[in-house]
Every structure is written in structure tokens, then in C-alpha cells.
Amino acid sequence: MYALLAPATAARIRTELDPVLDRPEARTGLLTVAAQNLQAQDRTDFYAELAGPVRGQLPPPLGGLLHTAAVSNGNGGQSFGHDGTPSPGPGAGPVPAAQ
Known about the structure:
By secondary structure, the protein is mainly α. It has helices at residues 7-21, 24-39, 45-57, 60-72.
């Protein structure tokens, strides 16, 4: 993900590592890093610059969903749980189970 700001380098990495990056566990890792980068875009200029290229690497539904969750709602970096509900801030205690 971090090489996306250097397109020639990113293309070379993708070519060389394609057999590894196309495995399910690698895709999970890439999605995790992408989500972390997009969450940090409001806090760090580097991640703000990286956000567009990162979204461009995501499958179409995910790129739109992550953009909507992180930017359009004006959440200021709010994290979301696997069910789409906002996660509590640090020290908020356990999250109650969904009904």
C-alpha cells in the first residue's frame, strides 16, 4: 500500500509478488492495511495523500463504503464495528452485544 505514491514501484511490487498477493490471507492483510490507512487520513498528511490511491486498489463496493464511513459522515476518524455501528472511543468499556 505504501508504494502506491510511487506508481512504477507499486507496479513492480505487484508484478513480483502477484502469486502471493492473490492468496486469500494476503487479501485480508491488504484490506486491513487499507482500512488502517484510511482511518488515519484525517490525522496525518501522508495518509491523506495516500487515501485516494488506496481506495483505487479496493474492490468497487469497498472503496465506496470505506470512503463513506470515513469521510462523508463527517465522523472525524470514528471507527466502525463489523456490523457498521460506531465503535466506542478508548476507555469506553465493553461493547454491548447486538439484540
